């Protein structure tokens, strides 16, 4: 009988050990699932990039200029309005402070345009590049150069 009691005691101990192992495995699995669900949400929040800064725009009054053309027709006129996209408020303030200088540079550039070249998309894209290049140099000595991110046309009539 003692042998029977010993076997039943070992069996009970074995069942308890198996139950503890299964319970520990379930607990570890549950923790991993919980951590995966909550941990990935935290890392997704941490990895999400910050939203870009609000755009800075400067709308300029429209320009009306006579254009250069091969037949010397004085009726070739460009009426153009555009908005400058600037990188930051500091550049906006500087351009605003020297707006007469900016407008003068732009008027000189626009009045030297050829009517034939502005009639197509390439000519307009080239004009955007020229506007950026014209406004890039410092407005007065000792200031940093201006960076114009983009030039957006708001009116464009070629007559």
UniProtKB/TrEMBL annotation:
Coiled coil: none
InterPro entries linked to this entry: FliL
Membrane topology: Single-pass membrane protein
Locations listed in the record: Cell inner membrane; Cell membrane
Alphabetical keyword list: Cell inner membrane, Cell membrane, Cell projection, Chemotaxis, Cilium, Flagellar rotation, Flagellum, Membrane, Transmembrane, Transmembrane helix
Highest taxon listed in the record's lineage: Bacteria
Pfam families per record: FliL
Function as written in the Swiss-Prot or TrEMBL entry: Controls the rotational direction of flagella during chemotaxis.
NCBIfam families xrefs: PRK07021.1
The family this protein is said to belong to: Belongs to the FliL family.
Name by which UniProt lists this protein: Flagellar protein FliL
